[in-house]
Structures are given as C-alpha cells and as structure tokens.
Amino acid sequence: MKEVRGINPNFGKMLKYLRTKQGLSLKQIKEKTGISESYVNRLENRGRLCPSYPVIEKLASALSVEPADLLEVGSNKTNGSVIPLEQLLFSCEFTMDGVKTVSSETVEQLLNLIDVINDVAWEKDTLIADIYEISEAVDDLKQVLTI
Q: Which residues, 6 or more positions from 134, have their beta carbon under 8 angstroms from its beta carbon?
C-alpha cells in the first residue's frame, strides 16, 4: 500500500495567517510565485495536503520567511505529544514580526494576557470591567515590547 504524504493541518493556517497579515491576496501570491490562486487556497484550507519543496520555497520567499519555518510548521512529527503553551513559549526562541527575539519578560506578559482573556467572565454585567482588565494586560504587554 502506498504511503499517503501529508502535512500538519497548521501549515495551511500559518500560510493564510502570514499572507493576510502582509495584506496579500491570493492573486498577489500568484504574481509573486507563479503558483495558482486555487492551489494556494487549497493549501490554506486543507484541500491539498503535501506541497513540494520548490512550492514551499516560493511561498516562503513571497511571505518573507525561511522555507525551514514553513517546513517546521508543516511537520507531522509531533509524536502525539501536547505540551503546555507556557512550556512551548519559554523553551523556544521566537520573534514577533520577525524583528527581534522575544524576551522572557514579553513571554510572561503575553501569557498573562492570555490568562486574563481566559479568566474574565465576559457577561453582560461584567463586560466593562472585563474590557478594562484586558486593556490593562494589553498595556503591560505593550510596555515590555517597547523596551
């Protein structure tokens, strides 16, 4: 039986995130890469499961990332393990907008923001207080980002 190749479902989500964050349409990706709009759309929406390396290289170039970054997200080698977000963020160096490596203080504030969002009640009678609490956590994160 022939082995079916495939990639991690997050590959398409990452691809679409990077494309939309840069304000690129599918047509613009086609113009930059020569890859059809429908093919990229299928990659983004799991209709196409395994792009070739030359396709990944073209997409990476158009999205201003390294091919290895797309390949790592596309890897299916997770061994079924799930790790806590805080472990992931503290154990890996990463950048935001590819500008600079994120500090441990930034990771702390990012995790704090996620916790605050997760913990607020977000009900009609608490909405104003919840928005204020979230905005304080956003402000704390912005403070460490500007350092």
A: 113, 116, 117, 120
pLDDT mean over 35-49: 88
- Burial (CB count within 10 angstroms: exposed 0-12, middle 13-18, buried 19+), residue 144: middle
Task: Provide the pLDDT for residue 60.
Answer: 92
Separation CA 147–CA 108 (nearest Å): 14
| Predicted structure pTM score | 0.67
| 117 touches 111 (CB < 8 A) | no
The answer to whether residues 17 and 2 touch, using CB atoms and an 8 Å cutoff, is no
* Cα(67)–Cα(52) distance, integer angstroms: 11
